[in-house]
Design brief:
This protein is of the alpha/beta class and 356 residues long. It is 39% helix and 20% strand. The chain has helices spanning 2-15, 41-56, 72-83, 97-106, 131-145, 160-176, 193-205, 219-227, 255-266, 295-310, 337-341; strands at 26-31, 60-65, 88-92, 111-115, 124-129, 150-155, 181-186, 210-214, 230-235, 246-252, 274-277, 284-287, 320-321, 327-329. The strands form three sheets. The chain has a six-stranded parallel beta sheet with strand order 2-1-3-4-5-11, sandwiched between helices. The longest helix has 17 residues, at 160-176. The chain is globular and about 65 Å long.
Length: 356
């Protein structure tokens, strides 16, 4: 009897799932530079986080900290997350790059992903998206729809990523409407809905009937809706706040990348590296056209999106001159990635000087 009981227990321990010990879940954390709202930059990254949860289930445990200013606060939060035992930490804001690198030196076993950063380390990878590709496509739609030939652009900081977007948007507009001009208001901050709204109102008062922006809230979209103007949503679909004003949305898709990177940590094959993905890789998409966009314009934009994915269209193909009259790209030439990443000038058609 005892012999049979012992054999039964051994079999149960070896074969029953109840006795099998599953690997501990990977602990993944995200740090967000703005509050988590219904749409915008932070919302898109949180959709990516939720995509990781959906894809990996019990294999992952995720958390996030929102509304963390760049600088000392960011370093403190990132350090706390590393000390709490997170295996991988995503820091999606350009101003998080240096704090991420600093913390990474003290936690060599933790993996860090500096999203929009450009400096790598053995345990720090970087990733970014070719936002400018979506900006060019949105510019085509804006160029077709403007009646005043005036566009307004509410911008955060004059860093290369933002300059790429302004330039690509302007080039897209002028590719179908050579008379189009763009005026920019610089805020020198990413998230301040009242100031974003005021800037949008100022630009519309100056004659802009289409708007674009590179900030973190939906304020520009709401202002356009209020005034009967048109605007391009950025980061995510914003028809909820601008059901008639939205031209289209330039959306960022992070779920696949985040899932692959967390899975790589789980499989013990994560490596530092850099990725700059765009329309071709499925990281940038123009979608969610508004009701005022004719079908012909929608088809044109989607066709150009296919051209970018196939490599037939490059937004920064020459000839291109800057807004100070200097030739920047010759006919038959195009900017390479290094030149785009270091962009520090504005194209002809942008009527606002670059801050010095």
């Amino acid at each position: 009897m005892y012999k049979n009981l012992a054999a039964t227990l051994v079999a149960a321990c070896c074969l029953s799932p109840a006795f099998a010990q599953s690997p501990a879940p990977i602990k993944a954390a995200w740090v967000y530079v703005t509050p988590l709202t219904d749409a915008g930059w932070t919302q898109q990254h949180d959709q990516g986080r939720r995509a990781v949860e959906k894809a990996l289930g019990a294999q992952v445990q995720t958390t996030y900290v929102e509304n963390v200013p760049e600088g000392a606060d960011a370093e403190r939060v990132i350090r706390d997350l590393a000390a709490q035992g997170h295996h991988i930490i995503f820091t999606p804001s350009f101003g998080y790059m240096e704090p991420t690198l600093k913390v990474a030196q003290d936690f060599p076993a933790v993996k860090f992903e500096s999203i929009t950063g450009y400096k790598q380390a053995p345990n720090v990878a970087t990733a970014n998206a070719r936002y400018y590709e979506g900006r060019y496509l949105a510019g085509i739609a804006a160029g077709r729809l403007t009646k005043s030939n005036q566009a307004g652009y509410v911008a955060g900081f004059p860093i290369p990523e933002v300059l790429q977007g302004i330039n690509a948007f302007t080039l897209g507009m002028r590719s179908v409407n050579p008379k189009a001009e763009v005026r920019v208001i610089w805020l020198n901050e990413w998230f301040n809905p009242p100031r974003e709204r005021d800037a949008a109102m100022t630009l519309m008062n100056q004659g802009a009937d289409v708007l674009a922006f590179h900030t973190g809230s939906t304020a520009v979209m709401a202002a356009a809706e209020e005034r009967g103007a048109l605007a391009v949503a950025y980061h995510s679909d914003m028809r909820k706040v601008a059901p008639t004003a939205q031209i289209a949305a330039v959306t960022h898709q992070w779920g696949d990348y985040y899932t692959r990177r967390v899975q790589a940590v789980r499989d013990d094959r994560w490596q530092s590296g850099k990725l700059w993905g765009g329309v071709k890789e499925g990281m940038i998409r123009v979608e969610a056209f508004g009701p005022k966009v004719p079908q012909a314009v929608q088809r044109e934009v989607l066709a150009r999106q296919q051209d970018i994915a196939a490599g037939r269209l490059h937004p920064f193909s020459g000839p291109i001159a800057d807004n100070e009259g200097h030739a920047r790209v010759g006919k038959g030439q195009k900017l390479d990635d290094a030149q785009i990443l270091q962009m520090n000038w504005l194209v002809d058609g942008v009527r606002t000087p670059l801050p010095r």
